[in-house]
Amino acid sequence: MFTAIFWKKTWVWFKNYWYFPIIFVMGILLLFSGKGASSKAFKLFDNQKERYKKEIEVVEKNNAKANREKEKAVQANKEKIKELESQHNFKIEELESNKEQELQKTIKEFEDNPDELARRIAKILDAHLVER
Asked: Which among 63, 109, 110, 125 could disulfide-bond with 117, CB atoms 3.0 to 4.6 Å apart, if both were Cys?
């Protein structure tokens, strides 16, 4: 019973801290292999560290570039939206002016016929005419 629990706990420890035994074994191997092997191992670690730094720089550079492009796109979209809104407002004003002119013309044309005038005004204003 004690050994089963011990081996289960040991297995869990190895799963979580697998790098400690590897470092320990590598240290012992480097100790017995001589000075040349240990300097090669440290050189290998240094090279790995340099590669890591270079990769981080590339990632940061690409991220900064993507952020700049995103900001440019957002700014361009804001400017386009402002332009479209101003065009839209101008078109609305133009339509309202045209509708008002058509309304005045219709009133003058059908001032003697109130029923037809009501129908025409309802049509111009897109309203429903309610018959009595």
From this structure: 110
